[in-house]
Design a protein that fits this description.
alpha+beta; 2 helices
């Protein structure tokens, strides 16, 4: 999270939830100098209905 960006509570909760999951370096790919992508399948619907995202 970049502290200089505007507050986005729902996105920030999503990022914090990702941090709490069992992710490792192999779950990400890097493209270019400043791009990083999550390659692990993440069930966003499960996240929404878990109450974390609401």
């Amino acid at each position: 999270m970049d502290l200089m960006e505007p507050l986005r509570p729902s996105l920030d909760r999503f990022v914090l939830h990702l941090i709490d999951t069992n992710l490792n370096v192999d779950d990400f790919i890097q493209k270019g100098k400043e791009s990083c992508f999550l390659t692990k399948r993440f069930d966003f619907k499960e996240f929404i209905f878990s109450g974390v995202y609401s």
